[in-house]
Amino acid sequence: MHRGDNWVNVREGSDRAISRADTKAEAQAAGRETARRDKVEHVIQNKNGQIGQQNSYGNDPRHSKG
Q: By the 8 A CB rule, do 39 and 57 touch?
C-alpha cells in the first residue's frame, strides 16, 4: 500500500509496516517473497487503495474432487 512518500508492506490485521520501499515494484518484490515464505495471500493495492492484484502462495481450499 502507498503511505506518505513510500510503498509499504503490511500484514493483514495490522497497521504496522513490515517493510518500506521507494517504488511500488520494490515493495511488490519484498511482499511477494514474504508471502511465498509464509504461504499466505499477497494483496497488492493501487495508489488509491483499491486492490489491483491478488496472488495466493498456499493454504488454498481444494475445489476439485479427488
A: yes
pTM: 0.80
* Helices (H), ranges, the chain: 24-38
Q: Is residue 7 helix, strand or coil? A: strand
Question: Helices H, strands E: what count in the chain?
Answer: 1, 5
Write out the H or E segment, with its range, that includes residue 17.
Answer: strand 17-21
Residue 66: CB partners within 8 Å, gap ≥ 6? none
Mean pLDDT over each residue of the chain, to the nearest integer: 91
Q: How far apart are CA 54 and CA 65, in angstroms?
A: 25
Local confidence band at 30 (pLDDT 50, 70, 90 cut-offs): very high
- Distance in angstroms (rounded) separating the CA atoms of residues 27 and 16: 15
